[in-house]
Design goal:
heterodimer; A: four-stranded antiparallel β-sheet; 10 helices; B: globular
Chain lengths: 272, 341
């Protein structure tokens, strides 16, 4: 169970996050949504213990993060950052193998169990066939999956993901989120696509100007009113028979263009 | 991955590496104005180490023991220390152009050296090497403080290093221009380009433990260094205490480099080229990269020293000139190759 209590954090005197309190239950898939610059990545960094909040505390099962040694924390909590890149020539297997770092001491030899764990992680993201491929030759989606394999090899209870579906095509976006959900871990994921948040999340937290605007089940959170206020979009929210939300965005039509297209079509028709 | 080597394979590789190093040392001690065959070198060393009592010409023995062996060992220490520092800095700063001098260390060392030798700082009680060591550590401290103030990112560290180097180089030039006569200026230049001529056993007695301790410390952090593959926040997420590792390993590199520069001047390109070349062959795993780089750096500098003595008869070319003449083209090749892949 991950708890944030009145978190505040700023950069060069500018407040990025302010008064954020939320509790993530074990096994839950929590989506973090909000416009660009609303503080999603910063909140994930605080929740992962990478940055110390200026105010408030993050607790894992009641223990404040600074009181947990880094290595023990990394055995329980894994973070997949946005677009972590390297110029080095490494294989997919090597990248996934980094996930074993918190479980291995300075002189602990690599064991067959570690290899098995990495194989399992690679299999989970369907990369076992590409295990010996060079990092540089991978597509964006394959790299993202390799990062998730690395996180899974950490064998965490909690997985924090920062926009994991960026730069992926739609099929890979859906399969990746589905894959994450199937691991049975507690997940907190910053997501850009609101429909994906509606499809996959048990609860959604909405960040707006560094504050927590709302936190609850998708059907309660994704209302036309809130979408207009937070994201500045006009949208219709449908709820299907399973109780899942679907968001349709509405943009103003461009009558002049439509008319022009109509007349040109008419001309084409009369010419025939 | 790190541990896929079995223990016997590791042992075999270790022994092979040791033999290569011994061979290089024997060659380094044998080649010179009077060539001495390797078996005589080994006999002379055996005589000195455990009084083996082989019949060896006492002059040969003296040349080998008092002059060439200490010098060759120093070259090995320097090469290993600079190469290991290069590996560590390139990994931690995530900058392929980082080398042991990026933190302003050689610039500071030269300032310290000229301050002692030309300005008379220390009133004759401080040796030029001690001045260089103090200058190197001072410059390193300055660069680190500047980097911390400027925002702590690896790029800032490199930029702070550039700024620090320029500053200390300017001070050096100022002191030389103001106070040195032509003879002194030539001596300073020779020192700056790397000079193993004056090396004796007490120098080796300091350099060898420093390098061995530095290498051991870095090897202890090999797995941690691997975790920096995707940057420091990714390393932190993998359970690495980034700040502690930075302070420990960058500090260790700085001390190793400062000690080497203080004794033999700044020898360029070893710390830059050797890690890249080894990485191409051995991959990115530091458990392999660090010892191999140390070995290659040591052997490379022993050979460079031999070349610097043999290139022009009766004269020693500064070893920094030899390493740069070899290193610069190799580095250019690496850059082009790196772009092609």
């Amino acid at each position: 169970m991950l708890t944030a209590e009145t978190l505040g954090w700023g950069l060069r005197g500018r407040a990025i996050l302010d008064g954020i309190s939320l509790t993530v239950q074990a096994g839950e898939f929590v989506g973090l949504i909000g416009p660009n610059g609303s503080g999603k990545s910063s909140l994930l960094a605080l929740l992962a213990g990478l940055r110390r909040p200026d105010h408030g505390t993050v607790r894992l099962d009641g223990i404040p993060l600074p009181a947990i040694p880094r290595r023990l924390l990394a055995q329980r909590l894994a973070l997949v950052e946005q677009q972590a890149q390297t110029q080095e020539r490494v294989t997919v297997r090597h990248v996934a193998g980094l996930g074993r770092t918190p479980h291995l001491g300075a002189f602990t030899p690599w064991s067959p169990q570690d290899t098995a764990c990495v194989d399992q992680a690679l299999a989970a993201v369907d990369l076992l066939d590409l295990a010996d491929r060079d990092w540089g030759s991978l597509s964006g989606g394959e790299r993202q999956r390799a990062h998730i394999a690395r996180a899974l090899a950490q064998q965490p209870e909690l997985l924090l993901l920062d926009e994991p579906t960026n730069h992926l095509d739609i099929a890979h976006q859906l399969s990746l989120l589905d894959l994450v959900r199937q691991q049975g871990l507690t997940v907190v994921a910053a997501l850009h696509d609101l429909n994906h948040a509606a499809l996959f999340c048990d609860r959604i937290a909405v960040l707006h100007h560094g504050r927590l605007d709302a936190f609850g089940p998708p059907a309660e959170i994704l209302t036309p009113d809130r979408l207009r206020r937070v994201f500045a979009v006009d949208a219709v929210v449908d709820t299907d028979a399973d109780g899942l939300c679907h968001i349709r965005y509405r943009v103003p039509r461009r009558p002049a263009v439509t008319a022009a297209v109509a007349t040109s079509v008419e001309k084409e028709l009369t010419r025939c | 991955m790190t541990g896929h080597r079995s223990a016997p394979a590791f042992l075999v590789q270790g022994v092979a590496g040791g033999l290569v190093l011994l061979a290089a040392l024997a060659i380094g001690a044998g080649v010179g104005e009077t060539a001495i065959p390797p078996d005589v070198v080994l006999k002379a060393v055996a005589n000195r180490l455990w009084a083996a009592g082989y019949p060896v010409d006492p002059i040969d023995e003296g040349v080998i023991w008092s002059y060439r062996l200490s010098r060759t060992l120093m070259a090995a220490c320097c090469g290993a220390g600079l190469a290991v520092s290069g590996v560590v800095l390139q990994s931690l700063l995530r900058n392929p152009l980082a080398d042991p001098y990026v933190m302003g260390i050689s610039a500071g060392a030269s300032t310290g050296a000229v301050a002692v030798s030309l300005l008379g700082v220390g009133g004759g009680l401080v040796s030029m090497s001690a001045g260089a060591l103090a200058g190197a550590l001072l410059a390193f401290g300055f660069v680190i403080l500047l980097a911390l103030k400027a925002g702590r990112s690896p790029v800032m560290v490199v930029l702070a290093g550039v700024a620090g180097s320029q500053l200390f180089n300017a001070i050096t030039s100022f002191i030389v221009a103001r106070s040195a006569n032509a003879e002194q200026a030539r001596g300073i230049l020779f020192w700056l380009l790397g000079n193993l001529s004056g090396v004796r056993w007490p120098d080796v007695g300091l350099a060898l433990p420093v390098v061995l301790a530095g290498l051991a410390l870095c090897l202890w952090h090999a797995r941690v260094l691997d975790a920096f593959l995707f940057g420091s926040s990714s390393a932190a997420a993998l359970g690495v205490s980034v700040r502690r590792v930075w302070i420990t390993l960058i500090g260790a590199s700085a001390v190793m480099t400062a000690v080497m520069v203080a004794m033999v001047g700044s020898i360029g390109f070893v710390g830059l080229v050797v890690p890249h070349a080894v990485r191409l062959v051995a991959g990115v795993s530091h458990a392999r990269l660090l010892p191999l780089s140390a070995l290659c750096g040591a052997v490379f500098l022993i050979i460079a020293d031999v070349v610097s003595r043999a290139l022009i008869t009766g004269q020693v070319v500064p070893i920094g000139v030899v390493t740069a003449l070899v290193g610069a083209p190799v580095f250019a090749l690496l850059l082009i190759r790196g772009r092609a892949t």
